[in-house]
Automatic annotation (TrEMBL):
Function (record text): Catalyzes the phosphorylation of pyrimidine nucleoside monophosphates at the expense of ATP. Plays an important role in de novo pyrimidine nucleotide biosynthesis. Has preference for UMP and CMP as phosphate acceptors.
Protein name (database record): UMP-CMP kinase
Cofactors, names only: Mg(2+)
Protein residues bound to a ribonucleoside 5'-phosphate: R56, K77, I78, V79, G104, F105, P106, R107, R147, R158
E.C. designation(s): 2.7.4.14
Superkingdom per UniProt: Eukaryota
Main location: cytoplasm
Free-text comment about domains: Consists of three domains, a large central CORE domain and two small peripheral domains, NMPbind and LID, which undergo movements during catalysis. The LID domain closes over the site of phosphoryl transfer upon ATP binding. Assembling and dissambling the active center during each catalytic cycle provides an effective means to prevent ATP hydrolysis.
CDD domains referenced in this protein's UniProt entry, alphabetically: ADK
One of the Pfam families matching this protein, by short name: ADK
InterPro entries: Adenylat/UMP-CMP_kin, Adenylat_kinase_CS, P-loop_NTPase, UMP_CMP_kinase
Swiss-Prot/TrEMBL catalytic activity: CMP + ATP = CDP + ADP; UMP + ATP = UDP + ADP; dCMP + ATP = dCDP + ADP
Length: 208
């Protein structure tokens, strides 16, 4: 066990040395954050890390860790924050980049506190794609033609879970002045124009 702890400490130390710029990307299902993350990667050269994708890749790898994650998901348990955070840390180090979009994480207040405690990294800011529930429903249903009735309940459930678990995270960072809220109900192009403003460094004001 000692060597595992040591390895984790090394990862944390190596990452802390890089002083990475981390942006948490939050938004409900259908808020269009995936599309916008792809745009940010292309224009601003961030590395996009999706917590869900990393967990799925770990399961697919067939590792001991992956099997444990798969069993927890099967049993309807929540994967511990530390497991997801370790995968994020590993991906951050392996990417060679120092600018990251972390998508779909932290999902709740416990995730948030654990991320800062384990990595010693505070996010630069939180990009929050705010989209009304009706608009998200409309988008998700138009994606899933033909299965509308059984989907509407699932969609509403996902939205409710997002609100209950993620809003405390957003409120926490709002109090620190770290939330950049984007009106995600607009067309994709307009949304990205608003995103660009957030990511474009403000021109340095020259003081006389």
């Amino acid at each position: 066990m000692g060597t595992v702890d040591l390895a984790n400490k090394d990862v944390t130390a190596s990452l802390a040395e890089k002083k990475p710029k981390v942006v948490f990307v939050l938004g409900g299902p259908g808020s269009g954050k995936g599309t916008q993350c792809a745009n940010i990667v292309e224009h601003f050269h961030y590395t996009h890390l999706s917590a869900g994708d990393l967990l799925r890749a770990e399961i697919k790898s067939g590792s001991e860790n992956g099997t444990m994650i798969q069993n927890m998901i099967k049993e309807g348990k929540i994967v511990p924050s530390e497991v997801t955070i370790k995968l994020l840390q590993k991906a951050m180090l392996e990417s060679g980049n120092d600018k990251f979009l972390i998508d779909g994480f932290p999902r709740n207040e416990e995730n948030r506190a654990a991320f800062e405690a384990v990595t010693k990294i505070e996010p630069e800011f939180v990009l929050f794609f705010n989209c009304p529930e009706e608009e998200m429903e409309r988008r998700l249903l138009s994606r899933n033609q033909g299965r509308e009735d059984d989907n509407i309940e699932t969609i509403r459930k996902r939205f409710k879970v997002f609100l209950e678990s993620s809003l405390p995270v957003i409120e926490y960072y709002k109090a620190k002045g770290k939330v950049r809220e984007i009106d995600a109900a607009k067309p994709v192009g307009e949304v990205f124009e608003a995103v660009k403003v957030v990511f474009t460094p403000k021109a340095e004001t020259v003081t006389a």
